[in-house]
Amino acid sequence: RLGLTVFKAGDPPPGQRVADYTTEVETADGSVEDVPFEIYTGVLAKDAALQAVHRRARLFSVLYIEEARYIEDDDDKWFVFMLWERLPDGRRAFAGYSTAYLFYSYPDRISFRVSQFVILPPYQRQGHGARLLKAMYADAEIRNAVEITVESPAPGFVALRDTVDARLCREAGFFQSEPIVWSNEVYSQIRERLRLTKAQARRCYEIFKLASIDMRDEDAVRVFRQEVKLGLFRQHFLTGSSLADTVPEDAEPGTVERVRADEERTRKEQLQQMYDEYVQHLISVHGRL
User: Fold this and answer.
1) What are the helix (H) ranges across the chain?
2) Is 218 a catalytic residue?
3) Are 164 and 133 in contact (CB under 8 A)?
4) 244 neighbors 229 (Cβ within 8 angstroms)
5) Neighbour order of strands in the sheet with 92-105
6) Which of 6, 20, 145, 209 could cross-link to 112 by cystine, CB 3.0-4.6 Å?
7) Lowest-confidence region among 4-8, 173-177, 207-211
8) What are the pLDDT digits (tens) for 247-273?
């Protein structure tokens, strides 16, 4: 349990408890038992005890998150969410944590940004990530945040977020009846109800849209492929720059055309690879719902 069983029996961790649940865990002898977990939250700058625990726990973000850095925990816009296992003797074992930052959103609301998110290896693939993320979403709802964003998400977190958001969309009735369509009106409803960004709401649409398509329907597959590729192109290739722009004026005739042709071929290959990988991701996420 990595040395962070720091609280004596009967002493709760610092912060405010916002969630508790039990999960089935297989023991060493092969039996299954219900293990209780708790999630506590608070403002780092306003709770010295919580800040002290965070300063011990933050090492894990550097160990498990690429390019992670320590946050300024004396800024009162930083919140932390701590996940604890409640041991049989009443102590707590540290299982993971996440941080969030509150931004001003015109005219009188806030934007809730998820920053660091760590579930320790012994607790991974047990549903704790989804529980922790949903606790953050509930907090954002209480604060009437206009939307929830994520800072530089790692691939593993992208999959977790997509799964949680798709489940929330399903529970709220979005994209559950034919025809499954995307529109600004649908997005506005999702943003108001679930606080998802436009890009994230669109990903949820694509998860359910792909699952609804009969792969024998070539026209439907083609339309979906074109829609997704257009989005990927806008996200990754719509920069306006080209290597052809750097070709010297005294270059051999046809050099610019050859460079542009090579760029176009490479772009098409990369776009197809991105599409194939993204489709597999969508299928994987829908399979976890």
Assistant:
1) 48-57, 59-64, 128-142, 155-172, 184-194, 198-212, 218-236, 255-288
2) no
3) yes
4) no
5) 16-26, 32-43, 78-86, 92-105, 109-119, 147-150
6) 145
7) 4-8
8) 677 777 777 778 788 888 999 999 999
